[in-house]
Amino acid sequence: MIFRNPKDILAFYISRYLMDGDTAVDATAGNGADTAALLRAVGNGKVYAFDIQQKAIEAARRAVNNDCRAKFILDSHAEMDKYVPAGIRCAVFNLGYLPGGDHSIATKAGAVIEAIGKACSLLGDSGFIAVTMYRGGDSGYEEFEAVSRYLSSLDHRKWNVLRFDYFNRPNDPPVLAVVERKIAN
Asked: How far apart are CA 54 and CA 50, in angstroms?
């Protein structure tokens, strides 16, 4: 398989991990592309989609035709433990700002790190967390560095943290980090 961009890598993980009936989280609903991909993968399962902007929630809701398997939550992903049950199979984060939206409204490293920690605690025995990070522009470099430091600090005995980066692409291409829970033998 050829991975042209982080979306292709994420699609590969979704196809390998998610099954009918699973529960997933789209921690940054945005325009709904990840919500739609997760809904296709979970079949009769459920997707919790978070965003802090009503505009994004409405766009994501339209993108999935108001699918009743998606629960849209107008709140920070850092509050996911208030809405999402334990045992999720996957959580997807796509950092930055709403495509086509106001660049001053964007994810913040502190809330992202808190949300990743909560996603780790909600993750079932066999699952993953995907974080697409953008370097450059606005506050991308600072957020990228802070989230990368946090991910690298996760206990290697409990978590595999993989980083997918394109070394030969110009202009600071996005980086995808995948966190997998290690299963005890």
From this structure: 10
